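Annex B, item 7. Sequence and structure tokens for protein A, then protein B.
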Amino acid sequence: MPPDHPPIPDSRRPLYTPQERQRRDASPWTWVQGVLAPVQFLVFLVSLALVLRFLWTGQGQAAAEWSIVIKTLVLYTIMVTGCIWEKVVFGQYLFAPAFYWEDVFSMLVLALHSAYLVALFGSLLEARVLMWLALAAYAAYVINAAQFLIKLRAARLDAAGSPADKRHPGVPA
């Protein structure tokens, strides 16, 4: 069950408890996430290039549209497997305190990508407007990916017992 209020970040609390770290390291879903994240990023880069090409030249509309559909399907896959990973590691499918804000922003990313699919398959928007919607979804995705990369760095610093933490306890590295 999600907390009644968003967790307050505590720079002294490690991202994972020893038990959570053990579950994370033992879970095959950790490996799945580690594979899907760069795959999703590569799909994103190809799709972004196709979308920008269409907006710049007016050519390749179908390729751009289908690349966004593929990017969205990869996003759904990583979100579902990420929920399973979060359940295994933290005991809840979404909004675990350690990833609360990343999960909140992920909902915006999902909403924008889903809105694209609804608009595309429902023929609700003109092609250029659809592409701008995709770019909004992609901007949200980039922000969300950065959130997760920051968490990955924090987890590595926790595991290594970063020198900054040893010199200045409680100060984020």
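Protein B:
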Amino acid sequence: MQQNNQRFSTPAPPQNAQPYDGVLPVDKPMGMTSHDVVDAIRRKVGIKRVGHGGTLDPMATGVLLIMLGRGTKLSDRLMSSDKTYEGTMYLGSSTDSQDATGEVTSEGEWEHITQEIVEEEMKNFKGDIFQTPPMVSAVKVNGVPLYKLARKGKTVERKPRLMHIYKFKILDFNPPEIKFVLRCTKGTYVRTICNDIGENLGCKAHLSALRRTNAGSMDIAETIPLDEILDMDYQTVIDKIIPVAKFA
């Protein structure tokens, strides 16, 4: 599967284009949902047509592309772009959300786990894989988000989805914490991969930290922390927006 990391050319904007039409590259803070960030930018700029190019869980930080005005027409392109993450897998326990925000559901021994064992298991997740979305997710079944069903204690059948993992590498091995980098196609649940590795190795595991460092052609170095954006005056924010005609 070929990486989707090329910039897309777009036609020149119409004469009645607004200065806010485009994409604002935000460094999302921890603790906010992607929709929270959209609402904050909507209030800051004072327009209704605002969206984002790929959900980040509240625990996650990093690249979140906010589309404004006619920039929302780029939604399909941004949503479908490949993503790169740096995260931390925590050995010894699994949770009901598969990350650190959930309740511990089971524990396992991890002291015997070596870097070589983990690296060998990680190989099984490279290339094409089928992944079943977690119950605590925004995926909808019969129009209802899974997380709403999970809150009621319900579990429903979910169809596995084809994903592709381009890169999965350990950055630092300091058990029970393992820092890693992962590049994947859209819709990949990194926390599910951590959970599955823990299950496969019998030691249990969950995702304890996650940062999106790249989305398509947009790198984390090109983003602006949300708190800085909210402290800017209106014109400065507008100047930071990448116009539709220039965005890839």
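Comment on protein B: Residues 83-131+161-215 form a domain with the Pseudouridine synthase fold (CATH 3.30.2350.10).
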